[in-house]
Amino acid sequence: MTTTPYRPSGGRHHVVIIGAGFGGLFAAKKFKDADVSVTIVDRTNHHLFQPLLYQVATGILSSGEIAPSIRQILADQENVRVVKGEVRNISLEDHTVTADLGGKDEVLDYDSLIVAAGAGQSYFGNEHFAEFAPGMKSIDDALEIRARVTGAFERAEITDDPKERERLLTFVVVGAGPTGVELAGQLAEMAHRTLKDEFREINTKNTRILLIDGGPQVLMPFGKRLGRKAARSLEALGVEVIPNSLVTNVNKEGVTFKDMKTDAETTVPAYCKIWSAGVAASPLGKHIADQAGVEVDRAGRVSVNKDLTVGEYRNVFVVGDMINLDRLPGVAQVAMQGGQYAARTIIDQVENRTSPAARPPFDYFDKGSMAIVSRFNAVVKMNKAEVSGFVGWLMWLVLHLLYMVGFRNRAVAAFSWGLNSVSRRRWQLVATRQQLHARNALRKLRELEDKEGIRSIEVRDNLRFGEGRDTRAVSD
């Protein structure tokens, strides 16, 4: 274990950034040419364009298009060092961050800290649902969902049992926010357009897709008008939109949900279940909040000051999905603008010796919300302006291309979207058994190792913050 905390040579102000999502990456890039040293820590080696994960899951884009290497993105920024590891501890008093990769620690000493660790999937206390209904928060999730979706059709092709075939061709998406709506729409297009005539024993047009949500409509933040338009478009694609319904059970066989108006329960047999309902901030938020003496809300978001700092620690910034401030939504724009604001604030402090009391408050500029429903059809809400249909789809394309990282990724994505518009084929539907089973296999391996009091490198590398440390490790 490292005994002396790491500081870059040169004696410059050292900024540690936790997380290389939108908030962390935009903060790091803002420090280019600034008189500071930056260390960015992330548990993966890539920056994830999370809003496009559903396109990886449904075979439109490959993972490389939406997840470029962090090191390659920041290669030309000489004042940035990248550390791949899971943050295990933050000491606000000692100004240190401890990151771990496979049981090997690196302790970082910071002058300023930006925490942009994002959020994970929330199952609202029913974490056992995750075994059968993966979320949509990582590349691993998207690849597993792709394997589950394609596997359902493959299994349906070879079964002789009509009821089992019906179960295999039933897909349930839980949560009717942008991710759920986009995913349900793409599943419908896959079944009715992409896979049409590719199977001999099944008719993929018989696929049943359910979109279940506890709210009264889809896309609640978009308002009633756009929500109704999106629902009608989904229903025209063959998606069954089921509002005002609470999922009470998810198991191997299917999903049970309760009508919140009548309390009537319905069980739908389904092989492929996908969870996109609710998020929970990284547990690092509570870890910081407890030290700073501030509160977290039910989703684990930290109550921050107007300058995005925490309590009395005016050198510790929290940005993105982890903050509870002025009811800001958990969207990419909040993270981007928050990361840039934190970076500008630190630069101003270093270069102009601006005191925390003189900092302007974080002022979020709402650039609107977008969701693609299907090919040539998206809904867009920008303040009071509401756009839908083909124009909304074009706006969606332009904005997402604008925020993708790298010319190649933009070019490939634009080409893929154009090709998908004129052809029913999808060229990224490869799926492996490893993608399908790895997450649950690791979970079962961990359970076995818990009994033996050991940890393999495979499990240690997948332990997240708050999941404990290891006593006796087996050989790497």
TrEMBL record:
This is NADH:ubiquinone reductase (non-electrogenic). It is an enzyme of class 1 (oxidoreductase). It comes from the Bacteria. Belongs to the NADH dehydrogenase family. Its EC number is 1.6.5.9. Coiled coil: none annotated. Keywords: FAD, Flavoprotein, Membrane, NAD, Oxidoreductase, Transmembrane, Transmembrane helix. Pfam families: Pyr_redox_2. GO terms for molecular function: NADH dehydrogenase (quinone) (non-electrogenic) activity. It catalyses: a quinone + NADH + H(+) = a quinol + NAD(+). Residues 14-339 form the FAD/NAD(P)-binding domain. The keyword Ligase does not apply. The keyword Nuclease does not apply. InterPro entries: FAD/NAD-bd_sf, FAD/NAD-binding_dom, NDH-2. The lineage of its organism: Bacteria, Bacillati, Actinomycetota, Actinomycetes, Mycobacteriales. The chain crosses the membrane at residues 390-407. It comes from Corynebacterium urogenitale. PANTHER family: EXTERNAL NADH-UBIQUINONE OXIDOREDUCTASE 1, MITOCHONDRIAL-RELATED, NADH DEHYDROGENASE.
